[in-house]
Amino acid sequence: MRANDQSSSSSNKSKDNAVSQHIPVKNIKIHGQKNTGKDRYKPGDQIYVRKVSGFFQKLRQRMNIIFFAVFAIIPWLQYNGQQAVLFDITEQRFTLWGLTLWPQDLTLLAWIFIFSAFLLFFVTTFLGRVWCGYMCPQTVWTFIFIWFEEKIEGTANQRRKLDKQKMNANKFIRKALKHSAWLFFSLLTAMTFAGYFSPMQSLFIDTFTFNISLGMAGVLAFFALATYGNAGWMRETVCLHMCPYARFQSAMFDKDTVTVSYDAERGEGRGARGRKEDPKALGLGDCIDCNLCVEVCPTGIDIRNGLQYECINCGACVDACNGVMDKMNYARGLIRYTTEHELKHKKVHVVRGKLIGYGLLLVIMSSMLILEVVNRVPLSLDIIRDRTELAKENFNGEIENVFTLKILNMSQTDNTYKLSVSGIENTQWHGAQEITVKAATASTLPISISVDPYDLKGYMTDITFTVEQINTDSEVKVAQESRFFNKR
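The structure assignment produced for this chain is given below.
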């Protein structure tokens, strides 16, 4: 009996110890908040973005205007009588004002892309996803489409009520006007984008005179529908599920990265209260649980839940919360641009290892890009041999090789070039030795080289063709090696 009592007692003690290790959980009702038993905001619900004003929204709007103006104006600019920026895929050349890039300049394009990537990494490490909130085309076009919605359908609450109504004349007209505006703006966007790859002036005229080719019509339709779908319908879905930047940004963040954050220490616990009531007496923080920060968020998140990859750092919740704090006579900054270290009252390290590393890489990449541009020779030479007969004997008893020289003028001006060959003594040049090549074009020149067989020391001799620009003070010259063959 004693053994059984002891075993029972030890079993009860072990159960008590196990129970004591569990953390007690209890439901706490936030003061002033109604518990409906279900989420107020579901990720799958349509987001009706509420309009908000404030410093950061004015800054974002101005930056959006600048970005869109630059995007829309650049294809119309002219330089030296031609379109200043044109990525002509059919001609395989990219024109950037005074610089023309060809497939031979892929290394230069690679340096440009690498520099842009590291610049994005540097900015993200320092200021978080400000690119997404202020300059990303998806964000810019989404806010433009929301502006059309506000002008045609009204505020966020009016749009929500309109969508719940059954179809009537008023709803049909408003919806038709909105989608017509979206589609027209999408077409203008598609035309502007296509203008970077096709001459803009002729494209604009041909489009509105219905004189464009079937292929170009398909391109415009594709990009117009893509703009209409992304900015009009998908919106935050692109940011949340399609953009890879949102996924790998966390690798660049650290505890000193400036992001939009909620000061939970100051704001909790949340709850409604009168403007004249003392929150401390009620046991409340500064957050009145108005949910404006959620209603103005273009991705529909609640910033009070902490840092989330969906946040695009647009600052809309900052302006909304600051407006509420002003009305409540509380200090601003409950939601603000800050760092994790600052929220925990720790020292903020503005200059840190990761930022220095990205900065050094930026310096290296920019230096390589500048060196590539400075050392770039705007001239290229390709040598094509006659494949039908490597060598032949002409009427003078000399050995003759036939070549086709392709001279590519990569500058923005017409130039005259002088050609020569070296590597064998007493060579005879048959064909023109000077050629004028128009700006950003290539010309071919068929020539032949003949040599007395007594000057040839073997079956194959290395030779070098040289092309030199003669109508300029600067030395522009390229050389290309080839082979001269003797008859067996």
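Interim note for the steering committee: The radius of gyration is 35 Å. The chain has three domains: 55-101+136-251, 259-343, 379-485.
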